[in-house]
Amino acid sequence: MFVDTVKLTVRAGKGGNGIIAWRREKFIPKGGPAGGDGGNGASVSLKASAQFYSLENFRNHRIIKADDGQQGGQSNRKGRNGKDLTLYVPLGTIVKDAQTEAILFDFTEASQEYKVSQGGRGGKGNTHFKSSTHQAPYQFTEGTAGEIKEITLELKLIADVGLVGMPNAGKSTLISTVTHLPVKIAPYPFTTLRPNLGLLAYKDHARILLADIPGIIRDAHNDRGLGLSFLKHIERTSVLLFLIDISGWEGRDPWEDFLLLRHELQAYDETLLQKPFLVVLNKIDVEGAEEHAETFRKAYPFDPATLFVISAQSGEGLKPLVHAMAELVMENKTAALPL
Ligand code: GDP
Ligand code: MG
After folding, report:
1. Which of 168, 242, 246 is the pocket-test mutation for ligand 1 (most atoms within 8 Å of CB)?
2. What average pLDDT does range 244-251 have in this prediction?
3. Ligand 2 centroid – CA 170 distance (Å)
């Protein structure tokens, strides 16, 4: 689970003032009060939308300010109301009070709406203060202030695909290449949320989040180094992608690496190995890699359709991999939060 946060100051609009004014009709020598009311200040609400998947839009707008109401007019004209502001947030966004950290709202369903700051009320014009004993009131009220709130928005992201690999297997490289692929398989561009997160759009609306998390290490299940937090992470992903360095660099044995990765997962939680997975042999561009790949293929006991050979660096073999990955995620999407 990745948490993205932004802090915002949200100012609702002030209500417009009521005014003092008098009727000025030609044949009425002593016109009565005619001061209009002020308009209401605009409120600011947040609304959940499945069309949005990150808080990026808020990064450049740390202060949100809604319109003030206008002051009242002559002839009892009411001032214009400020136009209420609705800001869209992704599903899974939690709204917190920035100071106390109390949870104010939790967006779990599309179209849910939460009013963050209430606009001020318009003041009353002097017409309101007319009475039988008080025919010409010199009285009005000011509009009230709009609410100002300091909030944080917190978005929890569950990766759909967890990259499992030894250090230097090429996880970061894969994420970065995949998120910059020229878009041929989907009408949306790939976006990079964070250096270690990649979001790819697939077939119009499905969004798939890949996570490149710090490398798994020997004895990860005993919580050495970053191992355990990594493993916790992948518990909720729907698909695993084993990324294997097939170059044989520094005398590494790719098959041993694969077994070790599986062993680490199993030792932590056996059910992890029941997750749907793909195995990806990376760095096929390196001299001698093809031979290692051949040996790996022969040893591979699973469906050959789950085995891919790529160069994360050159992009070779990436398209079929991305397709297979996206399809597998669509079939197995278990994450509670639609992205
Ligand atoms: P990570 O630790 O799994 O994130 O691995 P990195 O993505 O940081 O890659 C480790 C090293 O392998 C870097 O020097 C990369 O440039 C290199 N590398 C990654 N993918 C490839 C590849 O497909 N071919 C080659 N030749 N080098 C690669
Ligand atoms: Mg890395």
Report:
1. 168
2. 91
3. 7
Size (the chain), residues: 339
Q: How far is the CA of 38 from the centre of ligand 2 (A)?
A: 58
Q: What is the CATH number of the domain that holds 39?
A: 2.70.210.12
Residue 257 CA to ligand 2 center (angstroms) comes to: 17
Do 191 and 125 share a structural domain? Answer: no
Query: Do 234 and 147 fall within a single domain?
Result: no
Instruction: Look at residue 302 and tell me if it is in a domain.
Output: yes
Does ligand 1 have an atom closer than 6 angstroms to the CB of 196?
no
Mean pLDDT of 317-324: 91
Per mean pLDDT, which range of 17-26, 121-130, 286-295, 325-334 is the poorest?
325-334
Nearest CA to ligand 1 atom 7: 170
106 lines ligand 1 (CB under 6 A): no
Over 50: is that where the pLDDT of 189 sits? no
Task: Let me know whether 146 and 166 are in one domain.
Answer: no
Instruction: Answer yes or no: is the C-beta of 248 below 6 A from any ligand 1 atom.
Output: no
Same domain, 183 and 147: no
* 130 lies in the same domain as 218: no
Q: Which strands make up the sheet holding 197-202, listed edge to edge?
A: 191-194, 197-202, 206-212, 161-165, 239-245, 277-282, 307-309
Q: DSSP per residue over 177-242, as a string?
A: HHHTS--SSSSS--EEEETTEEEEEETTTEEEEEEE-SPP-TTGGGT-TTHHHHHHHHTT-SEEEE
In a domain, 339, yes or no: no
Token duo for residue 148 = 């100002």
How many angstroms separate the CA atoms of 129 and 138, rounded? 8
Does any ligand 1 atom lie closer than 6 A to the CB of residue 173?
Answer: yes
Of 84 and 59, the structure prediction assigns the larger pLDDT to 84
Domains: count for the chain = 2
Atom 25 in ligand 1: residue holding the nearest Cα: 283
Containing structural domain, residue 294: 161-332
255, pLDDT greater than 70 = yes
Q: Which stretch of 229-233, 302-306, 332-336 has the lowest confidence by average pLDDT? A: 332-336
CATH, residue 226 = 3.40.50.300
Considering the entire predicted model, what is its pTM?
A: 0.67
